Amino acid sequence: MKVALIQMDVAAGQPERNFAHAAELIEQAAAEKPDVIVLPEMWNTGYDWSQADHIADVDGRQTRQLLSTMARRHDVHIIGGSVMYRDSQTGQTFNTMLVMDRSGQEVARYDKIHLFRLMDEHRYLSAGNSFQTVDINGVTVGVMICYDLRFPQLSRKLAHMGAHVLVNVAQWPTPRVNHWQTLLRARAIENQVFMIGVNRVGESLGTPFPGSSMVIDPFGEVLLTGDGQEHIYTVDLDLERVEQMRKTIPVFQDERLDLYGQ
Question: Which of 14, 18, 98, 247 has the smallest CB count inside 10 Å?
């Protein structure tokens, strides 16, 4: 599986600028002929709560249009990072990931389930209440958003649901980049999966973001560590390594769910 990671800057509170920029980057990523393209978290607006009522994508219409068009045009799956998403019927706002298949059809929606209090998400957003995996060319991929990474129960649940690849999209700040790198490796090793982390770059409302997007294999080997600049990275995943690792150290056979639950 060939994966393209879009490590991009995000202009806080400027959705039109961000949509145009994302479209350019998706076009560039598609030129590498990947199986799937992944964007970072909240790329449409950033964390500008002061304008949330006006800049959230109502029912995800603009996001769906862009991602669907690009997926269909380039015959590629797109894991659409996440966007600030407003439900017109309930008035709730979510941190939402949309996933498109090669034909441009939406195959998954995931609303972030762990809201990050340090960024006031719990004050402005509603939490999701379900897990999500998607099928990409016959491979089960589990998806997460940023703070979800700190909860090992979620990644384990996704692994139990059959995921051989986990994807986390983020706006993870520079002061905690060591946490980001360590947690990504831990999730790969403990679940014996490929772990893909796509983070943003730049500075927003006084907070710097380091990029440092990563791809880690089931053995914990780091296949990619991004720099601090806008960049499109492509990595080929040898998915046979998942089964190799699970046969070598059969943790899923040896775990005691009867003692500590599922």
Answer: 247
